[in-house]
Amino acid sequence: MAESKRANASMEFAVKILKLCDSIKGHYSIVNQLERSATSIGANYTIVALFAEC
Q1: Do 41 and 14 touch, CB atoms closer than 8 A?
Q2: CA separation (Å) from 40 to 7, 25, 26, 46?
Q3: Closest CA to 52 of 6, 15, 10, 9
């Protein structure tokens, strides 16, 4: 149950950051890094969860 909450929270965080990045004009490199950092949380969590099942 806690794993599901963490997965949902990381997804919500990523979506909020992506919406924020859409509203930022210019500064492509900063926006790009922010998008990659925000969405990597969910990817890293998924990998850890997969290894925990083994």
Answers
A1: yes
A2: 12, 22, 22, 10
A3: 6
For residue range 1-43, list pLDDT tens digits in order: 466 888 888 889 989 999 999 999 888 999 999 999 988 887 7
Contacts 24+ apart (CB under 8 A), 36-41: 38/13, 38/14, 39/14, 41/10, 41/13, 41/14
Contact 16, 39 (CB under 8 A): no
Distance CA 52, CA 44 (A): 12
- Token pair of 7 as six digits: 């997965």
16 residue type, one letter: K
Residues in the chain, how many? 54
